[in-house]
Each structure stands twice: as C-alpha cells, then as structure tokens.
Amino acid sequence: MAILKVAKLGHPILRQVAAPIPPDQITGPDIQRLIADMFETMEEYGGVGLAAPQVHQSVRLLITEDIPDPEQEGEFLARRSVAINPEITFLTDEEVAFYEGCLSIPDFRGQVPRIRRIRVRGLDEKGRAFDREIEGFPAVVCQHEIDHLNGVIFLDRMRGLSTLAYQSEFDRFRAASAAGEPS
Ligand code: NI
Predict the structure, then answer these.
(1) What per-residue confidence (pLDDT) applies to 1?
(2) Is residue 88 within 8 Å of residue 142, measured between CB atoms?
(3) In sequence order, which residues have a C-beta less than 8 Å from that of residue 113 and are 6 or more positions away?
(4) Mean of the per-residue pLDDT values of the chain
(5) Could you say which of 44, 145, 169, 181 is catalytic?
(6) Ligand 1 centre from 58 Cα, in Å?
(7) More confident residue, 178 or 9
(8) pLDDT per residue as tens digits for the range 132-158
(9) Which of 34, 54, 125 shows the shortest CA–CA distance to 84?
(10) Is 135 a catalytic residue?
(11) How much distance in Å is there from the Cα of 75 to the middle of ligand 1?
C-alpha cells in the first residue's frame, strides 16, 4: 500500500467528469490497489471521505470513513464503505448545512447546504450492487464525494462566501458550534 499524492485546488483533474469503472475490472489488481491506497491516504490526512480524482485517477470511485455517532459512544452513523459508479437520488427537499472541508482545499472550511436524505446505488469493492438510504452527516459526505466525480467542489455549492474560514480560525471561533470534517 502507499500514501498517494492529493490533487489540490487548481489541478485540472478536480474539474473533470470522471469515467465509470467497467464492473469486470473492480476485482482486478489495479482497482483493488487503488482502493487500498485511497484508504491509507484518507487515514494519513484525516479525511472522512476521498474520491479517486483527488488522487489523480479520473474514475467514478469514492470511499468514506467510519462516521461515529456523536450522541452514542461506540455507535456509528455509517461504517467505512466503497462506492463505485454511484448514482444519487434526493429523497427530500429538506436541507442540512455543515461546515465542510476538503483534502484538496486543505486550509479552508465553509458552510454548504446539502440535501438531508438521499438514496445511493452503486457497486461495492467486490463489484456487488448496493442500494442504501442515508441521512444527515453521512449523506453530506456522500454528496461531497460524488460531486468530486463530476468536477464539482464544495466552494461551488456554497450560497455565498461569508462562512468561508481558515481552518485555524474555524477551530478558534466555530468548531464548538458546527460539525465538519475534511473530505
Ligand atoms: Ni473533497
């Protein structure tokens, strides 16, 4: 396994629409190595999610980290997962807004409105189809990562820039009142 270099804002790959992965390639060595390296990279940099274009691979693959339940010790809102060729459906008009960060925009946080509850269909790391409904922060992480597959970053989704903050000032003034993790 290897820690991969993360593409930073301004790298053109972050603005490309990523290509689907042929299902018969998922269990092959290239995709399996990419998945393992992406998990190692996400752990190294402390992200809660990572999309393949962020590690210079323009393919429709994302990973998400375990997301602990802040209200129940030892419980999780979502467990770590892999989504390949994911398709998203919005299940409500209701929005939530978290302060998001991004490993490709490392020193900033900004509040982003997202849909509160979504359905995601795709293939897992073994090429098996999944179909799940997710809500709240895990749904936010998933929307953030799927955006990366379409060349969209969280700055594009902000309603304005008034909540944009350096990480250091976010930690000083906002962290106590707003959740958010780099992804
Ligand atoms: Ni990101």
Answers:
(1) 83
(2) yes
(3) 95, 96, 97, 157, 159
(4) 95
(5) 145
(6) 14
(7) 9
(8) 999 999 999 999 999 999 999 999 999
(9) 125
(10) no
(11) 25
- For residue 85, the tally of other CB atoms under 10 A from its CB is 18
Instruction: State how far the Cα of 154 lies from the Cα of 135, in Å rounded to an integer.
Output: 18
Tell me, in angstroms, the distance from the centre of ligand 1 to residue 146's CA: 9
What phi and psi, each to the nearest 5 degrees, are found at residue 65?
A: -90, 165
> Which token pair is 183?
């992804």
- Residue 42 to residues 22, 64, 128: CA-CA distances in angstroms? 24, 9, 23
Residues 6+ apart with CB under 8 A from 177: none
Domains of the chain plus CATH, in order, are 12-179 (3.90.45.10)
- Short-list 146, 154, 151, CA closest to 11: 151
Structure tokens at 144: 């953030």
Q: Which residue has the tokens 């998990």?
A: 39
3-state secondary structure of 63: strand
